[in-house]
Amino acid sequence: MSERYSLELWVEKYRPRRLDEMVDQREIVERLKEFVREKNVPHLLFVGPPGTGKTTAALCLAYELYGEKWRDNTLELNASDERGIDVIRTRIKEYARTVPLSEVPFKLIILDEADNMTGDAQQALRRTMELYSRTARFILIANYASKIIEPIQSRCAIFRFQPIPKEDFIARLRYIAESEGVKVTEDGLEAIWEESMGDMRKAINALQAAAAIGEVVDADTVYKALGKVTPTEIRDMIKLALGGNFLAAREKLRALLYSYGLSGVDVIKLVYREVTSARSGLDLDERTRLELVELLGELNYRIVEGADDEIQLNALLAKMALIGAKRGRA
User: Fold this and answer.
1) CA gap 106, 44 in Å, rounded
2) The architecture CATH gives domain 166-226
3) Helix axes of 264-276 and 309-329: crossing angle, nearest 10 degrees
4) Which architecture, in CATH terms, is 25-160?
5) Which of 280, 278, 276, 268 has the alpha carbon at shortest distance from 319?
6) What's this model's pTM, rounded to 2 decimal places?
7) How far apart are CA 147 and CA 114, in angstroms?
8) Which residues of the chain form beta strands (DSSP E)?
9) pLDDT digits 0-9 by tens, 128-150
């Protein structure tokens, strides 16, 4: 293992400690800083996709409110693990009724993954939020607002976190790589961006995993670290099928299925990504692209409903060969 490689988890090592250090989410940061200046925080509900900074924002808010004493005045629970009504009635209620140990007249209770709480627990939480509002403020963190009952939503100021823009996302990864002395290429950063789908936590873990197995983090190293198929392999299979070479395309498909242990749905998603990507280099006209997307949607439905993966994927390649032949005659 390289001496430069840190055994510490980079996700935690590079987690922002202050609101100003957060990547993007500027409007949310400004509103939270106003709460800090006023020393007055309402109950909050943070909603958004994974890895967009919800938990980080809650912890940064706690740190800026209480300074070094933030741990003494903050209770952080993962509601997906402690999701029952007993936790609300005992641990949370006992903590909420205690006096804060700071100038701020209330403590913070952070409930991560609150959308996994049971309905009964949410009903009990609603009453607890009312009874102890003078000594405690709640920050609920959820991926889906629809899974939080309406009475709780109405008691909270709702903050909706958006996926981090690509430029800020890649800039943060580049900063981490430079800080750790890791050489990372542009195609490596692009690969991490595509695989993480805007999830910064997933991206940082991917960067650390790739740095552990290669001196240079490029696209191939990233896919190897994640155990994922490279876009080139999918692209080659599509080109063979569209070129009318069905048997060679089928051999490629079987290699993907058995070497990587992919399911039929996984393969369809990978093919879909290449077909719809402007950078795939497949040179598809718009009509062909539309035909392929329609075909992928139909086969995805069949597989999800229980059809055999390999037969359906072979049918996909056969249909691609027919589309390619028709395109060649046009």
Assistant:
1) 14
2) Orthogonal Bundle (1.10)
3) 30
4) 3-Layer(aba) Sandwich (3.40)
5) 268
6) 0.78
7) 9
8) 44-47, 74-78, 107-112, 136-142, 157-160, 183-184, 216-217
9) 888 888 889 999 999 999 999 99
